[in-house]
């Protein structure tokens, strides 16, 4: 069993660390963005160096105190809040927020875990490079949290997940050992892939303190369009058509639907919508091209070819950066509108592309069989990643449907599992999906995960209760 | 301690498996391609299904018999041969050589571990897709071995290592549990990254039996050129220039030097060389472009811009597929020429790009301080990956320099370590570099590796002696 981060533990920490590493507990460290879950905070530590992180973990390990590595607090699966049990040490990386080095000629940036994602993007832009990780919470999410959760976002189609953007890590193991793995190398076959094991482990195997990240050339010409498509299947065919025309040049390909536009009208009327009558389905496409190609012209060609093939019925190509930004605002405000409507059940799922159009249909039928709901299904369709969210009928509140929530989740996740999809595409497991992982996860993989967790964190201090449910040590 | 794969063990296997899974031992399974190292083979098994693999491992684990997962046998670090100790079970995947499925619309292919790499490439081409993993041994290397060693090759610059090309795995854990992880999903954040842990573990954590791999659009227009550069630094500057012009369009960027051309002249005079007088340094560039761009034209522009910037002094742009193939033959025959000359010491290293030009200079000085040698330094310079090979002076044999080998290796690897490089960029650790890993590896990472190995393979049956030296169980 773990012990609480109490006065005795605080005294232990103060024997080994300067007092200014600890801070009075503030409520925001006990909250998650949707406000559904509250967490316990015994002690709040804000270390400034990897050595201080190492000391904190060594002490926590010795005292058997649970530790929550804390980034920007924007996670959506309650990985950052412990609802009950012994109060943990919350270890926020926010003061480790230095850009340690930028190597434009190597397309590498080295940042500490506490750097805000938007600041990583800005530091790359300053040297005429692109850091392509991009997501709605980028103004407050910190890169350590993005790494810990292997964050996704809109750039995955072209540039991959956070995992794919990382070359090296500095991290502290649960017993306080520091791994100095901040390599900038693209090729390094010297042993097990500890980097990818820590990435996406959601803080359960150690604390990431810094990372060497890949940068990319800024595309010379970017273009943004919204195209109306008759169906999700047509959206995928349009993606294939686009890829055959421009190869890797498609930077984003986002599906939106009429329900989402209605929600925007209802909750955020100031958001300027692209069409007077919201289409049932449309895609937001962004291209980033080099080699002297003109992105607007290529989009025009894709639009014409799409019309000819019956894949596109209407569309707008942004004529200015401002208009492109407006298109993106529509996409990025969808989650906020959803939140204001209040979902009964929300799902961050991925589906093999081939099965995706049928899944959307079948999912609607499953939901309708449970009751009268509104579904907003949108997202990173090029990756097969849908945000599939179920809402009460107009005029009713999510609180009226508490009893249906479990049936909805089960029906949708069962269907996802049936077609070879994932019940968590990009948000992770956290605490909200531990049951799903036990239900749908491969038994051999779960066995291996538990063996690894026990081997690296035998006392179970790291983010206890997240990802895996372990027998008491 | 492990037991030998002897008659008793064979009898155990025959209780659980059909007799045709076992085969009489053939000498080739005890050899590696350069012929420097010989291995022991107790029993040879050629399973046909993942269930047979699982049974083999379950029996081996029960009987504490070592197992070598065997692919095409082309590895260069003796990961596939056990020189001494109890004779192992050699488990060759060669009969698991089915392409299980191709999903061109999803850009995914699912293959069994025993499929030869060239056959994966061919299956992709058949559906107008590209599987970009490409290396000299592709005609005999098997994809399971490529995955086990996280193989590199010439396509890494654009498409990444084997690791980056894999979406999902089917694998057998050391105790015989089967992990059914053949997902085709691009996004799947449901627990620890077991996939990347097995990839590059060189068969020490389990046996990969099948993989879901990424495919890519075939570039519409490809072009190949050889450009003479005044120095490695100029080569890297030319790469930067090229990237600013064509973004991700550079598919390969290979450095070659005069010594390599001399070796070709000496050993393989039939290979048609591009220049009458071999240049000191040149680069082989391949572009693969879409969006209506003409690769030959873009290469022409790059050549002109390179000349103007003083980065290029001469060059040839292939005027036909045949000529492009001739350029590649030169590059691909370099290892064979090296083998025929016979290196005293050879190094598969990677260096941060910024430090690479100085490293080449400093390395020559270190080598010269030990004795009179010839150095052939070439390779995937865009990734910072050099094959840095040291040869005896003309007319002498490698056997005359056995005593210098260790000093050379130490001097070069020390220098690599000093500048933040890797002593094994793409070949892996195998058995030849276990000492290097102990010397240069990060202690916390080694600790974590040993903990993981012990957790997943407590009896130490999987490829014993490769990668890690463990205390006897």
UniProtKB/TrEMBL annotation, chains A, B:
Matching PROSITE patterns: FAD_PCMH
Record keyword Ligase present: no
Cofactor: FAD
Xref: InterPro entries: FAD-bd_oxidored_4_C (IPR004113), FAD-bd_PCMH (IPR016166), FAD-bd_PCMH-like_sf (IPR036318), FAD-bd_PCMH_sub1 (IPR016167), FAD-bd_PCMH_sub2 (IPR016169), FAD-linked_Oxase-like_C (IPR016164), FAD-oxidored/transferase_4 (IPR051264), Oxid_FAD_bind_N (IPR006094)
Transmembrane segments: none
Record-stated family: Belongs to the FAD-binding oxidoreductase/transferase type 4 family.
Protein name: Hydroxyacid dehydrogenase
Originating species: Sulfitobacter alexandrii
């Amino acid at each position: 069993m773990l012990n609480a981060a109490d006065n005795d533990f605080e005294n232990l920490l103060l024997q080994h660390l300067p007092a200014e590493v600890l801070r009075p507990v503030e409520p925001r460290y006990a909250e998650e963005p949707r406000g559904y879950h509250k967490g316990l905070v015994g002690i709040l530590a804000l270390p400034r160096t990897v050595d201080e992180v190492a000391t904190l973990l060594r002490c926590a390990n010795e005292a058997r105190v649970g530790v929550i590595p804390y980034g920007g607090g924007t996670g959506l699966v309650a990985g950052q809040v412990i609802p009950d049990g012994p109060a943990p040490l919350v270890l926020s990386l926010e003061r480790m927020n230095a850009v340690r080095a930028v190597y434009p000629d190597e397309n590498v940036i080295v940042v500490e875990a506490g750097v805000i994602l938007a600041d990583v993007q800005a530091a790359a832009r300053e040297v005429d490079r692109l850091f392509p990780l991009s997501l709605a919470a980028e103004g407050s999410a910190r890169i350590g949290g993005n790494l810990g959760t292997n964050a996704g976002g809109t750039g995955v189609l072209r540039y991959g997940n956070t995992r794919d953007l990382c070359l090296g890590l500095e991290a502290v193991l649960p017993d306080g050992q520091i791994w100095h793995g901040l390599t900038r190398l693209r090729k390094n076959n010297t042993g097990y892939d500890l980097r990818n094991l820590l990435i996406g482990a959601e803080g359960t195997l150690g604390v990431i303190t810094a990372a060497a990240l890949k940068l990319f050339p800024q595309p010379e010409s970017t273009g943004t369009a919204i195209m109306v498509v008759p169906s999700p299947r047509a959206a995928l065919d349009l993606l294939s058509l686009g890829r055959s025309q421009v190869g890797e040049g498609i930077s984003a390909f986002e599906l939106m639907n009429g329900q989402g536009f209605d929600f925007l009208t209802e909750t955020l009327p100031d958001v300027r919508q692209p069409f007077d009558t919201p289409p049932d389905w449309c895609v937001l496409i962004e291209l980033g091209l080099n080699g002297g190609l003109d992105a607007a012209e290529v989009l025009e060609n894709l639009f014409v070819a799409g019309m000819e093939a019956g894949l596109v019925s209407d569309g707008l190509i942004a004529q200015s950066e401002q208009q492109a930004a407006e298109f993106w605002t529509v996409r990025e405000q969808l989650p906020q509108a959803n939140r204001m409507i209040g979902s009964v059940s929300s799902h961050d799922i991925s589906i093999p592309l081939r099965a995706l159009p049928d899944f959307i249909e079948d999912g609607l039928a499953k939901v309708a069989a449970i009751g009268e709901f509104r579904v907003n299904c949108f997202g990173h369709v090029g990756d097969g990643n849908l945000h599939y969210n179920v809402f009460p009928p107009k005029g009713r509140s999510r609180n009226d449907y508490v009893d249906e929530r479990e049936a909805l989740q089960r029906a949708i996740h069962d269907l996802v599992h049936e077609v070879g999809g994932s019940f968590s595409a990009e948000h992770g497991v956290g605490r909200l999906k531990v049951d799903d992982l036990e239900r749908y996860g491969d038994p051999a993989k779960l066995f291996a995960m538990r063996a690894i967790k026990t081997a690296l964190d035998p006392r179970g201090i790291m983010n206890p209760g997240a990802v895996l449910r372990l027998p008491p040590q």
